[in-house]
Structure formats: structure tokens, C-alpha cells
Amino acid sequence: MTKKGFIALAAMIRDYNEEADSSGFPRFSLRQIQLLADFCYQQNEDFNRERWLGYVAGTNGPNGGTETAD
User: Fold this and answer.
1) Rounded to 5 degrees, what are φ and ψ at 29?
2) Residue 34 and residue 38: Cα distance in Å, rounded?
3) CA dihedral in degrees (6, 70, 54, 63; nearest 10)?
4) Beta carbons of 40 and 1 less than 8 angstroms apart
5) Coil, strand, or helix at residue 64?
6) CA end-to-end span of the chain, whole Å?
């Protein structure tokens, strides 16, 4: 998987969880997100797990900065 694919996956999860808050759907749990991060690392050892988790959580942008990309 490529960096672009990892970013797209993180954005999808983040957007889904935001929508789930207002629609009553269940959110991705932290454990589910961590398991996906583990899987991503298995696909590409250059995968930055902490940066990806931060992007999913909305604490940083897709490249690790403090800005979020929308």
C-alpha cells in the first residue's frame, strides 16, 4: 500500500467517526483502529503508525504537522 492509500484510509475512518457521532452509528473503536495500523505496518515497514493514528484522531495533518487537511 502506498502513502496516498494510507492517508485515504485514515481520512475515511476519521470522516466516518465524525459522521457516526451525529447519526448514531457505532464508531470505529480505538482497538479496531490500532489493529488497522498494525496491518498497515505489516504491508509497508516505512508506515509511520503514530503519525497515522494522529491523523485518524485529528491531532495532526496527513504529513504529521499540527494542521488537519480537509
Assistant:
1) -80, 160
2) 6
3) 60
4) yes
5) coil
6) 22
Residue 21 has pLDDT above 90, yes or no: no
Rounded CA-CA distance 51/70 in Å is 16
Lowest-confidence range among 36-40, 49-53, 65-69? 65-69
What distance separates the 2 farthest-apart alpha carbons in the chain? 36
Q: What is the pTM of this model?
A: 0.83
Confidence band of 68 (pLDDT split at 50, 70, 90): very low
Mean of per-residue pLDDT scores for the chain: 90
Average pLDDT over residues 27-38: 97
36, 43 Cβ separation under 8 angstroms: no
